[in-house]
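Quick one: structure for this chain?
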Amino acid sequence: MASLKVNGVDKIFPSGSLALYDIKFETKDKEFIVIVGGEASGKSTLLRVIAGLEEASSGEIFIGGKDVTEVEPKDREVAMVFKSNTLYPALSVFDNMGFGLKARKASPTLIEQRVKSAAEILGLTDVLYRKPKALTAAQKQRVAIGRAIVREPKLYLLDEPLSGLDDKLKAELLNVIINLQARMEGTFVYATKNVAEAMTVGTRIAVLKNGILQQFDLPANLYDYPANAYVAFYIGAPSINFINKAKIIKDENGVFAEEGGLKIPLSEKILKRFENIDGYANTDKTVIVGIRPEDAQTSSEGFDTTVSKVESDNGRVYAECELFSHSLVVSAAEGVSAGAKTKLKIDTDRIYLFDGETRLTLLGRDEGYIKTDFAEADYVPMTFKEEEEVKEKFKEKKADKKKKR
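Got it. Here's what it folds into:
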């Protein structure tokens, strides 16, 4: 079994900086897990802790049901592919790929068999006896992946393996990795800041921010049922539009989210999911309204708006529209141009609502949510204030360390 369990892992660097805070999740055998997050989110550090290249400050790591928290990296049955080129320049492709097996005193016959088999899978047979300087960037990364798979570990850790490649090579190598995962026996954990990559390869995705887990779920669930405003913002491109400091107004005409003259009706579908509406309607509490660009479109009906900009992204055309005091990126109907006065239709069944202070979702799950057996799906992230308190606590500890020096 190649399952992975991360149980309450913290990582605090000697400087006092917090890298990971109370990370908990579990995988099944042969899953393809993606850890996604921006710069300094902790995704690379998490992989290094799992591999044993960094020591966890607290918590436990289990691989295949075995506690490996105190086990040396070489004995964890883990192989890691780094984002930077880590090939030995003086060694051939063959020797680079077989290096780990040779260090473990594997027989020459086994090394040759596994290296040649991996080379065939990765399309490296013709360059097996070349040195790294004679390879393309994509070939070098294939060699790095090959070096990992020849060991046939229980766990494959890939830290931004497509970083630095152009879009064509990224797509090519991503297909290689997907095919590899289908053929290999182990579990894959893949770190990236690229949401499109994450949504393409991940059976489940963990979203990290500042070393704190935000949500861990199926790609479709992250998109449709984000646990907080950050997940809604990070998952999806172009990014979701937010209308901050809106209030819930309930009157004889229905229920609305209102801010600065903009009054968005809440549909029956949204009202059914809004579990604590009485705690917000006609009060001073504020909410954040989220509208994805795919769920709003320039149209012949809806709100009056002016188009300020039109841009293409991945074959789709988007318009930036001015709506009262808000600027929203929406799907553009054919023929819409900058400066045009038009209307904006919002799919009110598809809006998102988050508490203005906690930034947690206010909408419960409905029948569209894809239920799994994983406990992580029911994880509720910290509120925005709680996150800030954790960050502040470690900033103070870091400052105290500096003073003592």
